[in-house]
Amino acid sequence: MSVATQPVILMYHSIAEGRSPLRIPPAMFAEQVSWLAGNVHVAPLAEVVDVLAARRPLPERTVVLTFDDGFADFHQAAAPLLLRHGLPATVFLTTGWCGKTNAWPGQPDWVEPQPLMNWEQIAELARTGVIFGAHSVTHAALTELNPADAAREISQSRAEVESYTGQPADFFCYPYGKWNRPVRDAVASHYRGACSTAAGVVEADADPFALPRVDAHYLRKPSWFRALFTRRFKTYVTARRLVRRLRGQPEGAYARI
């Protein structure tokens, strides 16, 4: 089996039972974490971003774990497992909804409301080494806001994360994966890097402010998850991305699969 060694940024949302594209069952997640711990280098997001910015060779067989929205089940089901294995992760918080549910305006109808971590839980996890980034204040599609409102969502969410965690919030994640050049440039003025929902591995010429990720929902079958760093895997992810583009559908978990 031919090999492709570019870093892969995995995108998770909720670690809970159910077939929703936003959910990965805890037992499946535990199996994935165990495999990652024994077979690849799991790195913090900063490691990949810094390498790209410095134009150094990308680290081989590297996986970055990211979690969007800050679901309460991260505190319950994911964090203890990651801590046990010593694996870093970045959680992107929608700061205005912490301690509430993910029932913000604009949420697709098929998304079931689920509780989000509160600031006390977030601060507790920050003390254990979990890295927190910003996912805006209200989870609004930034490309649909006027520049002043988009700038406020971008800067205020960072300030709030830093205030409650006591750690720098160096990374951003675009709500719904939607960004354009003005939004990207506004993010670049406040952060070291940003994640999109575009499906793909991290190439040497990747934009640190539009990093592609691979939705964990695509990898529910163990055979696909364990195919990371193969040409077959890269082709599979690329095909997922192209099909959604041809259909005019958004990429990632919010494109109902």
Characteristic key phrases:
8-stranded parallel β-sheet; globular; disordered C terminus; alpha/beta; TIM Barrel
Low-confidence segments, given as residue ranges, are 252-257
Q: Name the structural class.
A: alpha/beta
Mean of residue pLDDT values: 92
Beta fraction = 15-25%
Count of alpha and pi helical runs: 8
Helicity range: 25-40%
The top level CATH class name: Alpha Beta
Number of strands: 10
Give the CATH topology.
Answer: TIM Barrel
- CATH superfamily placement: Glycoside hydrolase/deacetylase
Measured distance between first and last alpha carbons: 28 Å
Largest sheet: 8 strands, parallel
CATH architecture descriptor: Alpha-Beta Barrel
Question: What does this entry look like structurally?
Answer:
It is a single chain. The chain contains 8 helices and 10 strands. With 257 residues, the chain is of the alpha/beta class. It has a single domain (8-247), classed as TIM Barrel. Strands 1, 4, 5, 6, 7, 8, 9 and 10 form an 8-stranded parallel sheet that branches. Strands 2-3 form a two-stranded parallel ribbon. Helix 1 (26-39) runs parallel beside helix 3 (72-85) and helix 3 runs parallel beside helix 4. The protein starts with 7 loop residues before the first strand and ends in a 10-residue tail after the last helix.
